[in-house]
Please model this.
Amino acid sequence: MLGAGIHSPEDRRFVGLAGGVLDDILVRDPVHATRIGDHRFDGRLPDLTHDGADEFARVLQRHQQFLDRIEDRALSRFAAADLNILRRGVARLIFDLTILRRNEWDPLVWNPASALHSLVERPFAPVAVRARSLAERLALVPEFLDNARHTLTRMPAVHVATAIAQLGAIGPMLRETAADLLAQPGVAARAETALGAIERHRVWLRSQLAAAATTPSAVGPEIHHGVLVHHLGMAPDTDADEILADAEDDLERILDALASTAAKVGGGTMADRAVIPDTLRAVADSAMSSPDDLLDLSERALEGAAAFLAQRDLLTIPAMDLRLELMPPVHRGVSVAYCDAPGALETADLPTVISLAPPPQSWDEERRRSFHAEYNRHMLVDLMVHEALPGHALQLAVARRAQAPTDVRAAMPSGVFIEGWAVYAEELMAHRGFAADPGARGELRLQQLKMQLRSVINAILDIRVHTRGMTEAEARRLMATKGFQEDAEIVGKWDRARLTCGQLPTYYLGYRQVADIVDDLAERNSTWTVRQVHDAVLSQGSVPPDILRSLLGLE
Model:
């Protein structure tokens, strides 16, 4: 219930101010507004031109001045938390618009796929209403992409190639899944015009590939530091070297735990780390997934996780409509899986969709086989824990019900907390003995530790790629020899490390903070059950971990 936690006139004044700031943000970021469930701007696309970005930054800088003048101590604890989140969110957007400036070099931010997909796939309103918004957005696509070609320069090749592939999937998405919307008056004609503009844009992107091949994808130490501060919530004096040193120490600690588990599962001695790849390979070979059973195996994993959680009473399970599907082609090329949950401001009763990307058809048979070895049935169990229960799907469902004074937490969720909770959820289930297959607890623990290795290596990759000039050969060696990843996973992760900046460390940094909060809260409240502790951690929504500590009385 919005408005919860308001205790004073100062709180009420802040609530009004926060609403005005969010309105100014969401009207300029209509795709994000649609995603979180605010449908006032569903017919719009963002203005990503130089002038549009500069105007957005000026508006935010004015808001920043007003927000900085608010006296935190005059607000209740809950309103002060929202003020802190809003200040950080505004500062992050200013950084993105004035320093990171992805609109000038990343063609993926100019991809209208998400803007169209959210109207096509989410039945939040009657067909006629969504069709009207879709038609309005489609009508804007030609000018939007024309602006892209006048704005984009120095594009890295991996971004260009990924954009070309994703843009090519928009036509099939519309024709195969939006038949009811396209049947509405005028929509089909606008779709064909938009698709013609998209194809012209793809042709232009192909013409840029030669120049893009010489453009580095690394953002550099200075911008990377800004990403750590503004996107990951790290202190301004944070040193990437410290994070890197901690991650590399934790990598060795997890390798010791993995060796111990591998010795128990496969036989041998943990003193010889060769037991790790040997056991992982044997487990993968005996539990290989296939293109035909990827969804079936995941469905059984979800059913098992739900039953286990109910039996063990580890946390409150909210009602949710949870579905599995193959990832739409328009979203492939960055990650293997994602959780598409209803936005925190969404009022319609929508399902939460877990999407899995099959290996690309362009891969040869050996690389496709490596994908199914990496995502064997035990790894799929751990992946469903992360993406669904009790990971993302459950956490985001609880976050939608969180009571807060303003919409700030809904509009500016913390990716560090979201990913940190999901990694913690993997460890929780493995430690409690969960396994979808009877007698396979050791195998699941093996995969969970391998995934934990992956989360640590993700952070190392992000820092080394963007600030240390890490080469593909060095990255492949790290992932293969320390992470025991299959070739298909290595190829995808190398691309992801270059396509993103600051996203890969969220798993490692978030997990450390969430796990510390759980431990500290349990110690502070020694009479609480495990369920009470977990429910409290999830009760405030997707807030930054340091702010969550304050809300839970741990500071």
